[in-house]
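Supplementary material to the annual report.
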Amino acid sequence: MSKKGNTIFFKRPPRILSYAAVCGSKEKEGIIGSYADITLDDDMYGEDTYEKAECKMLSAAISLAVKKSGKREQDIDVLLSGDLLNQIISASFAARDYDFPFLGVYSACSTMSESILLGSALIGGGFADTAVCATGSHFASAERQYRYPLELGCTRPPQSQWTVTGAGGLVLGRADRGIKVVCATMGRVCDYGVTDVNNMGAAMAPAAADTIMRHFKDTDTEPADYDLILTGDLGALGSRIVKDLTWEKGYDISSNHVDCGEIIYKVIESEFQGGSGAGCSATVLNSYILTRMEAGLYKRVLFAATGALLSTVSSGQGESIPCISHAVRLEI
Amino acid sequence: MSKKGNTIFFKRPPRILSYAAVCGSKEKEGIIGSYADITLDDDMYGEDTYEKAECKMLSAAISLAVKKSGKREQDIDVLLSGDLLNQIISASFAARDYDFPFLGVYSACSTMSESILLGSALIGGGFADTAVCATGSHFASAERQYRYPLELGCTRPPQSQWTVTGAGGLVLGRADRGIKVVCATMGRVCDYGVTDVNNMGAAMAPAAADTIMRHFKDTDTEPADYDLILTGDLGALGSRIVKDLTWEKGYDISSNHVDCGEIIYKVIESEFQGGSGAGCSATVLNSYILTRMEAGLYKRVLFAATGALLSTVSSGQGESIPCISHAVRLEI
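Predicted assembly:
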């Protein structure tokens, strides 16, 4: 049995054979700009709708990751993907262009880590040789679906985050070298009663803290064992909350915790909290982080993407926001 | 390596420890009425919104399946679930009530087989001892989200299907006896260009045919090797199409193919085509079919649930309907 608590272990860890990221015009001004494979000048990406642009970014990330892996498309055993759009249409429509099977997954902005977790399990169990894990988001399609039409010009409260326009993907497989997926912790749904849909960071922080601390316990490790504890898109405020929540339980992650949403833009906290969206952790991981891991700058990274499992209907009916975080440990 | 083509094999097949189904007032008049664990007189299930009623049905199916398995909740390693509502809120909100981890999956009405496939892979790979796989749907929440408000009283075209009000779930695990999940075939996205959102059966039939025929090839079997080839919710018309499509390729499934959507109601084809929705195959499988398998009436069943991966946005933007079918082979 390759599990302890909620953590699964890979005796022969799958490797990240390749990775790719596509990002939008706002995102390329930030930290990932010089690391992403494709940076857009026009966020419409030559398409006539936001949704098609989002799908095209995801397709580009998948195709590019496959190409960089040296594998042919017929060598890919499965694609695991999902996204924020209703019925995960970006992933489904992207998958339509490939001959390999597709397993749709959804955990909002923690889809990147859920897909890596499941892809690694399929490879670790001997059910696949190669798996593509990918996700993305688009600012304009997310605003239209979750909030207001852009044309309305609504102001944004200071606790809000900016949905990242971008997509990232990676190819998992067998190799003698490269970044390993050593183990993964499956997230539980946490709901601390936050109802403010503009404050996702506060809603998601408890789920991130829960998963990170269970990962420490299940693997007998502590914060200092990691070069980086990377959450998905808590933003600046959420990042502070997760540090507090873990500190209260005796884990000091303040010196090595970084949040993808906090670093992707130049954050001015009085204005907004940083990036969010499934594309946030997907682009940061699949460009900046994995490049630096390969360069030896980080040897062991705990990647805990975070997702808010709400919908406009659930919030409209007065529900609070259940959240989740799945974590994967990467080593080189 | 436990795979061939797109099919994965379980050397030590996980067993179905228990199953449970909840169905609505219309559904209990049909074939599953005397097999479902809970049958509702009022489809609101004591809740004040359709969505909450859907979530409550799913929770009931999960809790009942766990109870019938003889396991305690703390023995459950993971819940795999998804549903048709935007951002799979039924599954996410149901998962909130449990302490075990949650992996959200989405492949529309083939979510039941995708969750069994992934749950079996987690158990087969040694990453879990027990997994709950569940999904559901509700006629009224689906109508509101995908079509028209019920209050509008729109007429339905004869090629349309009726979204099933119901939920079903099962517990996979290790045991010496019971129904085995022997192997599973991962679906590919098929899109034959159907754009009529009222004709899901025609849209999904090619995906079902593709997966069923690849299953035959990957496992060196033929239609006569199965007591039942069970599709998800093609309805009466889609069922005829899948028989035609497989017959054209040399596979005659006409004598042992049955569609959950076709049998769940008393279908009058000039009126409508039968049931659909993630709850359709979930309730039929987790009541009528598994009960009859346990009674020895079917020894080998290929369960190929089918999903239409559209959204109102994709259809509104003129897109055709990509479809998928994941198949699992059950034996006793």
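The two ends of chain B are 24 Å apart (CA to CA).
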